[in-house]
Amino acid sequence: MKKAxxxxxxxxxxxxxxxxxxxxxxxxxxxxxxxxxxxxxEFVEISPGFQVHVRDQGPVGAxxxxxxxxxxxxxxxxxxWADLLAESYRVVSLDLPGHGLTGPHPDACYTADCMxxxxxxxxxxxxxxxxxxxxxxxxxxxxxxxxxxxxxxLAGMIxxxxxxxxxxxxxxxxxxxxxxxxxxxxxxxxxxxTPRGMIEASLAKTVVDPAFVTEDxxxxxxxxxxxxxxRQAVIDFTQxxxxxxxxADLLSGIDVxxxxxxxxxxxxxxxxxxxxxxxxxxxxxxxxxxxxGHIPQEEAPDRSAAEAASFLKRVYPPAxxxxxxxxxxxxxxxxTVP
Length: 338
Fold this sequence. Notes:
The chain is α/β, with parallel strands linked by helices. About 40% of the residues lie in helices and about 15% in strands.
C-alpha cells in the first residue's frame, strides 16, 4: 500500500513538474500595449469597464471603412489595407472581444449578436453614422450579421474569405490549433499550454507560401493570445453556437452592395463558401485570387486593396479633396472571377 501511494505521489509530481515546464504564462497587458499599440490606437469604453482597442486612420472627414479581423487574429491583419487606403478613406479597425489588446467580453458573450453590438458600440462612440464594413473569416461572419441588423447604416460590405455558409472542407485543412480548441478536456489545457510552434503551424495552414509566415508575425499571434483572459475567451468562443448559417434564403434579405474576395487556395474556408455568398446576396461580386489562401489582405495586399478601392469608389466615393490617393492611382489587377 505504501509503495502504491509513493508511486502515485511520484507520478503526480512528474505531471506537475511537466506542466510547469511547458506552461506558457500570460503576458502582462502593459507589456503588450507597449509592443502592439501605436499612435493611432485608442481604448474606447463601450460599457462600464469594458474598453475595446481601436485604430482610427486617415482623414476624419473621409468616408469610413470599418474592418473586422478573423478568429485568433487582431486588427494588425488590416495594416496593409490601412497603409494603402487611408489617404482616401478613414480606416477604422478594432480588436474583437477575446482578441488582441481588447481582452475578454465582460459577459463572456461571443455570439453574433454580441459581436455585432461591439462593432455598433464603437461606431456609436465615434459618431460614425454610415460606413462600409469589411471582415475576414470570423470578421466576415460579424460583418454579414451586422448587415442583417443595421443595413441602413451601411453603404457597402466587403467579405474576405468569410465564414458562414456550410461547405465541405478537407480535414487536413483545419489548423492544429482549431482542432485542439474543439476537443473537450484537451482544450482546457490551451488556457495554460500554447506552444509557439503550434501557433506557427496553424498560421502556416492559412497561407499558400510558408515563407510568408515571419518570426515577428508568429510572435504577435502567440503573445496576443496570451493577453490575460484571451485564451479562455477563444475556448468560450469555440463552444458558442454560431447561430443561423448563411443560407441562400437568409442572404437574399441582405440588400447591401457587396464585394466578395477569396483566396483560391483557402483550405480553411473553401471558395465554395464564397460562391454561396455570391449566389445568395442580391448585389454581390465575387473575385478569386489564384495562389492565395485564407488571408488575402496580408498575402496579396496590393491586389486585394485595389479591388477594395475600386468597390469603395463605386459605393462610397471619397469627398472632394480625398480622392488623390491609392483609391484612384492603382489599376485593377488580373484575377479569376468564376
